[in-house]
Amino acid sequence: MQLKEERLRSLLIRGLVGDASAYHLFLGELTAHLRSFLRRRMSRLPEETEDLVQELLLAIHNQRHTYDPGQPLTAWVQAIARYKLIDLLRRRSRTDGLHDPLDDDELFAVADTEPAEARFDLAKLLKQLPDRQRLPILYVKVEGGSVADAAKRTGMSESAVKVGIHRGLKALAMKIRSIA
Amino acid sequence: MKTEDFVSLLAAGVEPIDARRSTRRYVLAITGGMMGALAITGGVLHLNRALSQEMLEPMFWLRDAYCVILGSLGVLAVTRLARPGIRLGVVAAGIGAVVIAMWLFAALKLLTAPAQDRAHLLLGTTAAVCPFLITLVAAPLFVAFVWALRGFAPTQLRSTGAALGFAAGSLGALAYSLHCPELTAPFIGVWYLLGMLIPAAIGATLGPRLLRW
Q: Fewer Cβ atoms within 10 A, N terminus or C terminus of chain A?
């Protein structure tokens, strides 16, 4: 578990300086831990677990600048996971769904690699974004092109493409919250 | 979309994080908020007419030091609470220690003063308006800090709201000191503190609504 923490932490730190493949591994491995963490706490809302896994991944991505590399990764991820879980339960006003205490859990001790179906379709939500956010996300994040290439195709500046991606993913998080 | 595909989407072409952006956001909030606070102090209120003489008194600077130290600790608390999983640590105790130090100094002043002067040391001439005027002056700082925090991920919204209100109140009190004629430790220990605590209470109340993400 200590090894897991160390491994995920070093992957994230490499991701924070722009190493996309390390960041991909980080998010991929983290997914299983988030899923297991949530499944054990959402036994009354099993059909919503995968939604929240995706919402959490997006939150972790959007807030990755708040991770302090000197801080245990477990503490950072758990604080976000707990915050989002409580937020969801409050939206459901079913705080009694929290049978398990939320503290002193060892996030990285368990993993669940069996995804359920997410109920909302992120692809559809992405389509609702305005073009200046949707197209940069489509060209760079979905099709995997470069920022320079996306700038050429959209006629936007490179920094506008980056801002569009950033704002678009924040807007996506807002959309998920308003429907979920 | 499958979770796996979403992970690929998030990771694709991920940009490096520039740590200076977080600092810049706080600097911008403090600068903008402080300019607003000074504008209210100079425009809506007015500068203390005896300012140039009062600036020669050590108490003038002690009062400002009190506001600056509490304001810095408040901002430190905000920056810690803005990050998930980071505890306040000794910051809260530091604020308590500064407040108590001022109280001890105030008690000493009251005890050594002649009995008939004590009420004036505590109430001055503006006790009834001081906390509310500090709250007014702190309003732009409050708004600026809410804006700054919307770029971060606080998970304890009530505490974060209280911390941002306290930071705004303390820096607001610093701006307000250019208007305020009161230079006694008992006055500052009570009415300035109250002027910091009102925005803190407003922050604690509104935090869950203003800071959700």
A: N
Return the structure tokens found at B2. Answer: 């499958």
* Secondary structure element (H or E) that encloses residue B49, with its range: none
At A103, is the pLDDT very low, low, confident or very high (cuts 50, 70, 90)?
low
- For residues A113, A114, A120, A121, the Cα torsion angle rounded to the nearest 10 degrees is 70
C-alpha gyration radius of chain A:
17
HSE, side-chain direction, 13 A CA sphere, residue A178: 7
Q: How far is CA A67 from CA B32, B86, B155, B164, in A?
A: 26, 10, 13, 20
Give the residue among A26, A31, A33, A28 at the shortest CA–CA distance from A11: A26
Q: Which residue of A has its CA nearest to B15?
A: A18
User: Shortest Cα distance from B155 to chain A (angstroms)?
Assistant: 6
Contact A66, B152 (CB under 8 A): yes
| Residue listed under structure tokens 């690929």 | B8
Which residues of B are less than 8 Å from A53 in CB distance? 3
Each residue of B78-132: pLDDT tens digit?
Answer: 999 999 999 998 999 999 999 999 999 999 999 999 999 999 999 999 999 999 9
> Could you tell me what percent of chain A has a pLDDT over 90?
62
What's the start-to-end Cα distance of chain B, in Å? 22
pLDDT tens figures, A115-143:
777 777 888 889 999 999 999 999 999 99
User: Is B11 in Cβ contact with A15 (below 8 Å)?
Assistant: yes
Pairwise CA distance, residues A2 & B27, whole Å: 37
Q: Is B20 on the interface with A (CB under 8 A)?
A: no
Contact A17 B17 (CB under 8 A): yes
Closest partner CB to A144 (pick from B1, B13, B22): B13
Between chain A and chain B, how many beta carbons pairs sit less than 8 Å apart? 111
Q: Would the CB atoms of B85 and A75 count as touching at under 8 Å?
A: yes
Residue of A nearest to B153 (CA): A63
Look at the block and give the residue holding tokens 């030091």: B65
Cβ(B32)–Cβ(B144) under 8 Å? yes
Q: How far is CA A35 from CA A9, A21, B16, B110, in A?
A: 18, 21, 27, 61
